[in-house]
Design a protein that fits this description.
mainly alpha, Hypothetical protein af1432, GMP Synthetase, Chain A, domain 3, 3 domains, three-stranded antiparallel sheet, 7% strand
Length: 516
């Protein structure tokens, strides 16, 4: 109640208004003071920030000035070094120019001296020529012979004096060159032959198949011989079952058929079931196995010779060469040996070794081609290899010309011819049976004895030379030469032989008197 009454009193509001004004005045004074203080602090902060910024700017400027001074000093030092280097180069160039000037002056002096000498020599030469002409004129007057006649006479005298010496010198030089060429060729051939050691070949027309027991012979023959007849008909070979214990002989002149029959028979013996149906299945499987072995032998030959870029058909043909014989010599082994010989000789004379290898390896590939390829084995082989387009012309020409059917177009063809002969003539390369050897020697002696005037003939050097003795009364020297050529031609036309045969005809007279 007392409070309500105080609010209702006007003096209360009057006193309240005076008090509020005082408070507001005090608040305004405080606020004004605070604003001044805030502005003063802000001014101080701004001044401090400005001083800090100015200090940082001054420091940055100082740092940049120092960096600039340092870089300028370094640039000035580098420039000074470059100037010094250029000055040195300039001094060197000037020194070289001065030296060149001195040399040019010396050369000018020498040229002047040479020109003076040449002038004096030319003048002296003119004087000598004039003197020679005068002397010749005097000689012509004294000798009463013309200049041309004197020159011809002098030439004749010199030719007569030097003719014997020139002939002797020519004989000596040509003979020495020929001997050196023969010696070098002999050394190359010997070195090539000594580095190759081939295995001797044998005359093989049959293969032996071992039987697990003697009872298997009856099973191979079969009832009324139907098994053996079926086997021989399917394989194209002949089975020889004799008294030899635990073995059967597979005979055929075709080595591929013989190999297929051997593989098939061994498979049948291992399986135990032998009848016409199993025989046909075994032969078919053996044919596939032999085909795979053909590819293996071809690839093995290329791997041994380190050759590549060969068509798969050519690889198969190379593999078939393993089952072919040439004069009882394995055809693939012979071709590999010829390739190695060609490579060795090519390296000695500076030819391409790979081309020589390829020519030697493929030279007899025509021997395994079928009847579709016409011509000799050399021509057929060259045509067959040309079809694939992988061999260079030198290889194709070596294949076609290695028997002299066409002319040689490169140095690789003689290499193949020589290597082919060396491989065939190497002792043991083409071993033959004793019967065929004796027959060949007899034929050689019989051919020589058929001619009139021949007293006797002897084959020596394992049939590589025949010596024919003729009667000197019935055969003259000219007739003896003709007879030797005739015997040589008959041997080439009528006989078959490996390598070469030398014909030596002996005609001598022995006169004996006895004093008593």
């Amino acid at each position: 109640m007392a409070t309500l009454q105080s609010f209702q009193d006007p003096s209360f509001f009057t006193g309240l208004g005076l008090g509020g004004g005082v408070v507001g005045l005090l608040f305004w004074a405080w606020w004004h003071f605070r604003q001044k203080q805030i502005r003063r602090e802000a001014d101080q902060a701004i001044n401090f920030a400005q001083r800090e910024a100015k200090l940082e700017v001054d420091q940055t400027i100082s740092r940049l000035e120092l960096e600039f001074e340092r870089k300028r000093d370094a640039a000035e030092r580098a420039l000074a070094e470059d100037r010094l280097h250029l000055q040195q180069k300039e001094d060197e160039v000037l020194s070289a120019l001065m030296g060149a000037e001195k040399e040019r002056d010396a050369l000018e002096k020498r040229r002047a001296s040479y020109e003076s000498m040449v002038s004096s020599v030319e003048a002296r030469d003119i004087e000598l020529r004039e003197e020679i002409r005068n002397r010749r004129a005097q000689l012509v007057k004294l000798a009463r012979i013309s200049k041309e006649d004197a020159k011809n006479a002098l030439k004749d005298d010199i030719r007569a004096e030097c003719e014997d010496e020139i002939r002797e010198m020519r004989t000596t030089l040509l003979g020495r060159s020929e001997r050196e060429i023969q010696r070098q060729a002999r050394d190359i051939l010997l070195a090539s032959m000594q580095r190759l050691a081939g295995l001797p070949q044998t005359d093989i027309t049959a293969a032996i198949v071992r039987l697990p027991s003697e009872d298997m012979k009856g099973r191979i023959i079969g009832r009324e011989g139907r098994n053996i007849k079926s086997f021989e008909m399917v394989t194209g070979t002949t089975l020889l079952i004799d008294e030899t214990p635990d073995s059967v002989l597979v005979s055929s002149f075709d080595p591929v058929r013989r190999e297929i029959a051997r593989v098939a028979l061994e498979a049948l013996l291992k399986d135990g079931r032998i009848h016409p149906t199993s025989i046909e299945a075994a032969v078919a499987e053996a044919e596939n196995e032999v085909k795979q072995s053909v590819i293996h032998y071809g690839e093995d030959a290329l791997r041994r010779l380190r050759l590549s870029r060969v068509n798969p058909e050519v690889i198969t043909a190379l593999g078939r060469m393993h089952y072919r014989l040439s004069n009882n010599q394995n055809l693939l082994h012979h071709s590999i040996e010829v390739a190695n010989l060609c490579a060795l000789m090519a390296s000695e004379v500076g030819l391409d070794v790979e081309i020589a290898k390829r020519a030697g390896l493929f030279h007899d590939i025509g021997k395994v081609l079928d009847e579709e390829h016409r011509g000799s084995h050399a021509a057929a082989g060259a045509s067959y290899m040309k079809r694939f387009g992988t061999e260079p012309p030198e290889v194709l020409n070596a294949i076609a010309a290695h028997h002299g059917e066409i002319d040689a177009e490169s140095a690789y063809t003689p290499l193949v011819i020589i290597a082919d002969s060396l491989s065939a003539m190497r002792p043991g390369a083409r071993a033959e049976s004793i019967d065929s050897y004796i027959q060949r020697v007899r034929n050689l002696e019989t051919l020589a004895k058929k001619h009139e005037g021949v007293v006797d003939a002897y084959a020596i050097q394992a049939g590589r030379e025949i010596r024919v003795i003729v009667s000197p009364e019935s055969i003259t020297d000219d007739a003896a030469r003709a007879l030797a050529r005739k015997i040589r031609r008959q041997i080439e036309e009528e006989l078959q032989y490996p390598g070469t045969i030398r014909v030596t005809l002996i005609r001598e007279s022995r006169i004996t008197e006895t004093a008593r």
